[in-house]
Amino acid sequence: MSDEHISSPQPVAQSTKSDEQEVPTKVIFVGVGGATCSGKTTLAKHLRRILPNSVIIHQDDFAPPMEEVPLHPVHGVQDWDSAPGAISWARMVTFLRHVKETGVIPPDHRSHDHLNEQQAVPVPDELADKWRAHFQGLQEKLESETKEKIIWGLVDGFLLYWNQDVVDQLDVKFFLRVPHDALKKRRHDRHGYHTAVQFDLLEGALWRDPPQYWENIVYPAYVEAHRHLFADGDVEHGKLTGDAEKLVLLETLEMTMGNAVEKCCSVLDCALGKLHPKAD
After folding, report:
1. Domain 25-279 of CATH type 3.30.565.10
2. Structure pTM?
3. What b/e sequence results for 13-34 when a residue is b if at least 16 CB atoms lie within 10 Å of its CB, and e otherwise?
């Protein structure tokens, strides 16, 4: 498995068997959510390089096949963004529950993320090295004491907090909030998105936004799927509501990627202490 993505079906962690028993695993799911082009995948990949025994699970890989994506009732184009039809929810929930219980990614799972363009947004080496050493030492200590292998599942998605069954699987939840104008520019600067690989070995097809797709479909769908998280439904400026319990808000246009990584690692360090009391 590369540092960048799951490019072939692989386990999150290979079960290690002794003559007597398997080593048990504890899977910690970390949600990294936000609008399209908010920087969530970039952040998840930085965390993937820092956290030992970690893997990224891309929500985009659970989009339905292209021929099953519904048409927008007003604009008459395929709607990849409206929450009810944009993700095969039952398939995603089943997948997350399986990984949580077994620590293993199903062998038929494939990702297309490596096909998408992503601009490099580096973080200082000393920052990454500091946290990598910290988590490596802490997990080695915990695993020695508990005889339980810790695995991090970084779940990256643009509709991560809409479906309650998905939310219930997440142990730590981050949300990257970026203003409308910045999101729009980033989306328009992209050349397209590769659609999910489903039941064969072919790479995902390339989707390019039709004219006015951002204005008519992408952003309205984002607002609709996330208004419940913010006071008065204000996804741009509103404070988190009770529906966003334990959601960590990152205003990433106001911080560097290094600041975002530092914040996330501090939160994950505290979360590991709560999930594993021996970490304190």
Report:
1. no
2. 0.85
3. beeeeeeeeeeebbbbbbbbbb
